[in-house]
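INTERNAL AUDIT FORM
Audit reference: QA-55
Scope: verify that the stored structure record matches its stored sequence.
Auditor: D.O.
Record contents follow.
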Amino acid sequence: MVIGADFLPRLCSALVLGPLVLVLAWLGGWPFAVLLAAIAVLVWREWAVMSGLAPSVPALALGGAAILTAMAALASGAAPAGLVALILGLAAVALVARPRCWALSGLLYAAVAGLAPLLLRGDPQIGLAAIFWLIAVVWATDIAAYFCGRLLGGPRLWPRVSPNKTWSGAIGGALFGTLAGVLVARAFGVEATLGLALVSLVASAVSQGGDLFESAMKRHFHVKDSGALIPGHGGLMDRLDGLIAAAAFAVLVGLARNPLAVGQGLLLW
């Protein structure tokens, strides 16, 4: 097995940031909300810089204010007010920033990065299980895809978009991501049903799709990384692309099945 040159910095970054994320996710409440707000604003900045939004300062300020207001409202239990704030922010950014399509899609993407995990964690009964399920699926998928791809090799998954990804990595990531999701949910007392396994499998696949989406975006804008914030990974978008996609999927499933308790709608089958 050939280990990439970026393995050591990636490992060091994970050993520093991973425990911090887990502790704040466990605490929930305002500590976790503040972390997510910082992530969302930084993702918005990376998207704006990568896509060349102009004028950059007004776009960043309006979008950042909308994200922070929406998240503060959600954390305070005023979700409708948060939705209104986000809609107004989208309207303001659409009026100011160009190119408009990239501005609107970027603001929505950044908002999902903060709001979706906060919604999952906010479930009054199994929010902790839901957020740890999400983390387990995404992290296990990412790690297993990396090592299975390096160990087994084989045909490339989508060489035009991401030349290093293989089908063996994708399949291995999906299998281990599904297993991790079921085991972590079970550790929190959630029954290991077929529905839970299937939603874990799809979330793992969506996570890998989010990774490919960000790779395609970087190729479109001719950049190697979304930023240089995290050694071995690049920017936050490079590290969180899969989690953002999986979180969006998880919230959509949870809302569709139980709008009043997203975590229960997601995990209880």
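Auditor finding: record pair retrieved intact. The chain is about 75% helix and 5% strand.
Action required: none
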